[in-house]
Structure formats: structure tokens, C-alpha cells
Specification:
Strands 7, 8, 9, 10, 11 and 13 form a six-stranded mixed β-sheet that branches. This protein has a five-stranded mixed β-sheet with strand order 2-1-3-12-6, with helices on one face. The chain starts with 6 loop residues before the first helix and ends with a helix. It has 22 helices and 13 strands. Helix 14 packs across helix 15. The protein is an alpha/beta fold. A hairpin with a 2-residue loop joins strand 4 and strand 5.
Length: 486
């Protein structure tokens, strides 16, 4: 087994720049909302439900895995080192609970759970790999990094295990995001984070706008909003990855996954038709006033995009589904009365040419667990791999874990959970992502870290009208070529 990191992964580590986590970019405070309501009590209700699930799971007779088709685990002492990024609650307690339930059922197996800081996690992981100190089981976000970990020899191919043993009935998009080159390389857990358009139903009704189904209809709606004195989109692009959401969706609607996949390998280019079309759309929208003034100076981390929704300056906001819990916590009554959600509209011309319009942006797996279980001679350590598989599929995806996910506003990427959702906006998110043909992982999580920084800078240049779509495409091509070559 080759144990050498590919140059693209080493380049990501040595660059010393960490990816900005899209999923952690929301602001849960109410500082921007003068009419913020009291969300007290929701946390205690969530804790009560989660504790009940934990208690129910712990109180069952025998093991949680009894009667299931799973590998028989060793009765000899075994230690597994697991890395995650849950340093704060509720995630920390949720992760530790899954580990404890497993060790209660398998007391001979010790899980050495290490909570790593999110900010430098990817770098820490690559450094550990390069020094042959990589954990036996570790989380990641799928996509390009997962493929590189595999090609570098730090991921077990679990395709046969997945098709042989029991596991949750994950949605197709989650399995796709946990796969590479026809091989299943990770177990999804943590739920999905969709990217959709939040809109003010009251403003839409006032201006006489229906929810747009196509990009042409979206542009017509934006023109009406501008004429009525509204900013169509609340965008705070000081964080850069927020602007990338528009770029990603326009590329996906114009070409599906094809052109991004080709640009990533440099068999294609970031100057191909879809990227130029997307960039020109964005710059046209900037000129038409679809975004707020000073868009590149506004920060989503400070809630400045949500503030534009709250004071009725803006009518829409393209953002991650985590905003549901954030806005709802700020003011449940205002949220219920005003906020709706719709999927990013279709490119009707591309659809007529057969380009799939059901590729969504976000993550269908939340995180994935990959396994790095090898013997000294390079063969698979099946004893350890079996234990990791059971832990990931049966304890990080059990009733107690999934209840905690639901309580925190996250939808597990498992079929059937869409039926448990009562929030109408989260129902829309679930319907969109549970039926997606594929989910394009955020570029800033998929690309190598060095390329990510260039990509994000390009979003500043694009929305600031500082460079053309062709120029930013050339910048991204150069960065990708350099990452591959080093």
C-alpha cells in the first residue's frame, strides 16, 4: 500500500490557509433584529428530547446491534483513535454520546476520541498523514480532499462492506458524495446542509411576485423589486464564500457537474462556457442593483445580510439551510409570518439541451467518516475496520444521534426523516435535497486550500467588477495547475 501523500494534499497543508466553513458561517444572535423574540426554552426542550433518546437507547436489553447483519467484532482488547471537530456543545456531547453507547456495548474496545479545532483541522490531518500518525477513523467533508486521501493511501475502500452489511438507508446524494471513482469511501453522518433562496413572502405579495421557477423569471422578479425600491438579494460578500454560492449555482444550472469536474482536474478550464456565463450573469446583476451597495464590505458572520432582511431592505437571500434555525431563534413570530424558501431556479435554455437541473449546492453528508485501518505490511486491518464500520453506521446514525440532530435543526441524510419535519421551509429543503441527482459540495470545501483562497479572492473581484469572468477563470486555472504540479 502506497503511503505517500499526493502533492496536491501536501500543497494544501503547506499553504497554511484553512477553508472557511460554509456550514458554520451563520450568526445565531439577534443583534440585527430590533423586534427579536424570546427563544428561551427551545434549548431545554431539545436537551430533554435528546436525553430521552439516549435513555431509551441505553435502556434496551443487549446490544443495539443485536439481530443485525453486521461483522462480528473482536472480543480481544482493541483501541481505535477517532478525530472529529466537535469542540463545543451540542456537537461535542452528541459525538461523545455515540462513542459511549458503542463502548457500553463493546467494553473491550476503547475509542480514543480526539476533538480537533475546526480552523486548522485539515492541515492537522494532512500533517498526521505525512508523518504516518493518521487516526484510524476521521471526519471530513467529502469531495476532492476525500478523493486525495484515498489516492494517497489513507482511506479504506468500504464498497463491499457497504453492500454486504446493514447501514442506514442514506439518500442517493449522500452516497454519491461519499463515493469516488465508483468506490464508497465514507459513511455519511451529521445530516444535510442545503443552499436555497430565502424570501420575504410579505414583500413578494406586495410587489405581486410569484416564486420564480426559471432564471429568466428570477431576473424579472428582481427587476420588479428594484423598481419598487427593494434590494433583491441580501448578500454580505465580505466573507467571499457567500458570493461563491451564486457562482456555483449558476455554473451548476448551466452545465450540471460536468464543467466543474473538468476544471478541477484541468482537463477542462474555469474559463469554459458555464463559468463565463455565470460570471457575466453576476456582474450584470451587480450593475442592475440586485445586490446591496458595498456588498464586498458586508459580513455574514456579523449578520449583516440577515439585517437587510429584518429591516425590509432586501427581499431574498441565497444561503445555507442553517439560516432557518438562526432566523427562527432571532424571532419565531417574524419568521413564521414572513419567510419562505425556494430552490435556485432552472436555466431553461440549458434544460432544453438536456443539462440536468437537479444538481444542488451544499452538502448531503454533513460530514463523512473514512477509515484508515492498515496492518504494518500494508494489508487491511479487518478487525479494526469492522469495528469502525459498526461504530459509524450503528451509533453515529442511531436513534439517539439522529434525535439530537433533529433537535438542533439538522436533517439526517437518511430516507424517511423528511417525514418527521414540521417546519414548512425545512420541508422544502428536504424535498429538494432528498430528490437531488447530486449535491455539489461547496467549492471552498472541495478545492485544495491554496486554490480555495484564490477562488474566494476571485469572488471579491467578480462582485466588485474589478476583473472579468475570463480573468478570474484564468486565475483559478493557474492556481489549480500549480496545486496539481507541486
Amino acid at each position: 500500500m502506497k503511503r505517500k501523500l499526493l502533492s496536491i494534499v501536501l500543497a494544501a497543508a503547506l499553504a497554511g490557509t484553512m477553508l472557511a466553513g460554509c456550514g458554520s458561517g451563520s450568526s445565531s444572535g439577534s443583534q440585527s433584529n430590533p423586534a427579536a423574540g424570546n427563544a428561551a426554552g427551545s434549548e431545554s426542550k431539545a436537551e430533554t428530547a435528546a436525553e430521552a433518546a439516549d435513555s431509551s437507547s441505553a435502556g434496551a436489553s443487549g446490544k443495539q446491534t443485536d439481530g443485525k447483519n453486521l461483522p462480528e467484532l473482536t472480543t480481544e482488547p482493541l483501541t481505535i483513535t477517532l478525530w472529529d471537530i466537535s469542540t463545543e456543545d451540542p456537537g461535542k456531547t452528541t459525538m461523545e454520546g455515540a462513542v459511549q453507547r458503542f463502548m457500553d456495548d463493546y467494553p473491550n474496545i476503547t475509542i480514543n476520541l480526539v476533538h480537533q479545532q475546526n480552523d486548522n483541522y485539515k492541515q492537522q490531518l494532512v500533517v498526521a498523514m505525512s508523518s504516518k500518525q493518521a487516526p484510524d477513523m476521521y471526519i471530513h467533508w467529502g469531495g476532492g480532499p476525500m478523493a486525495e486521501y484515498y489516492k494517497s493511501g489513507f482511506v479504506n475502500d468500504i464498497t463491499d462492506m457497504f453492500h454486504t452489511y446493514d447501514h442506514p438507508d442514506f439518500i442517493d446524494a449522500a452516497v454519491a458524495q461519499a463515493s469516488y471513482d465508483g468506490k464508497i469511501l465514507a459513511i455519511p453522518f451529521g445530516g444535510l446542509s442545503g443552499c436555497d433562496i430565502f424570501y420575504n413572502k410579505t414583500i413578494f405579495a406586495e410587489v405581486g411576485i410569484e416564486v420564480p421557477k426559471t432564471i429568466d423569471e428570477l431576473e424579472a422578479a428582481c427587476d420588479k423589486l428594484v423598481a419598487a425600491g427593494y434590494v433583491p438579494f441580501a448578500l454580505a460578500n465580505g466573507s467571499k464564500w457567500t458570493g461563491s454560492m451564486y457562482y456555483m449555482y449558476l455554473v451548476a444550472r448551466h452545465s450540471g457537474n460536468a464543467e466543474f469536474d473538468a476544471a478541477y482536474t484541468q482537463e477542462g478550464s474555469f474559463t469554459s462556457d458555464a463559468f463565463i456565463w455565470a460570471g457575466e450573469k453576476i456582474q450584470d446583476w451587480v450593475k442592475k442593483g440586485y445586490f446591496p451597495d458595498g456588498v464586498n464590505s458586508l459580513s455574514t458572520d456579523d449578520g449583516q445580510d440577515k439585517a437587510l432582511l429584518y429591516d425590509n431592505t432586501a427581499a431574498m437571500m441565497l444561503h445555507g439551510s442553517w439560516q432557518v434555525s438562526g432566523i427562527r431563534a432571532d424571532n419565531q413570530e417574524w419568521y413564521d409570518e414572513n419567510i419562505g424558501v425556494f430552490r435556485f431556479p432552472e436555466d431553461s435554455e440549458a434544460a432544453a439541451k438536456g443539462v440536468p437541473q437537479d444538481v444542488e449546492i451544499g452538502t448531503a453528508i454533513g460530514n463523512g467518516f473514512s477509515f484508515n485501518c492498515w496492518n504494518a505490511d500494508g494489508s487491511v486491518d479487518q478487525t479494526k475496520l469492522d469495528a469502525c464500520y459498526v461504530l459509524a453506521t450503528q451509533y453515529y446514525n442511531d436513534d439517539a444521534y439522529n434525535q439530537r440532530q433533529l433537535d438542533s435543526g439538522t436533517i439526517p441524510s437518511i430516507k424517511g426523516f423528511e417525514e418527521t419535519i414540521d417546519d414548512p421551509n425545512m420541508k422544502v429543503v428536504a424535498d429538494v435535497f432528498f430528490t437531488a441527482s447530486n449535491v455539489q459540495l461547496w467549492y471552498d470545501q472541495y478545492l485544495p486550500a491554496s486554490v480555495t483562497e484564490v477562488h474566494k479572492d476571485c469572488m471579491t473581484e467578480l462582485f466588485g467588477l474589478q476583473k472579468t469572468p475570463e480573468q478570474i477563470g484564468q486565475e483559478q486555472d493557474a492556481a489549480m495547475k500549480a496545486a496539481i504540479a507541486e
